[in-house]
Design a protein that fits this description.
32% strand; globular; single chain; alpha+beta; 3 helices; 5 strands
Length: 87
């Protein structure tokens, strides 16, 4: 699988605390192995993020991505539930 990261995602990733960053790395590794692993709660989004999918990083932190091809994705957004969905 080819994974790309949008500049916006990278910018937010740099602001994560050490524990959140470690969890992000762990979840992305799991994502590479099985994008639908139950722990990720991978699901399709609607509305503002139509065309994107979301995975859980921590209890409140989400990573949103878009499929670019059969084996290629772009992680575009990273943030808490509040930051992403309630702003």
């Amino acid at each position: 699988m080819i994974i790309h990261f949008h500049n916006r995602f990278i910018k937010h990733r740099k602001k994560l605390r050490a524990g959140e960053y470690a969890r992000l790395k762990e979840r992305l590794k799991l994502f590479e192995q099985n994008i639908f692993a139950p722990l990720l709660d991978n699901h399709k989004l609607t509305g503002k993020y139509e065309g994107y999918r979301s995975i859980d990083i921590t209890g409140d932190l989400r990573a949103l991505y878009k499929e670019l091809g059969p084996d290629e994705v772009l992680f575009a957004y990273l943030g808490t539930h509040h930051e992403l969905y309630e702003t």
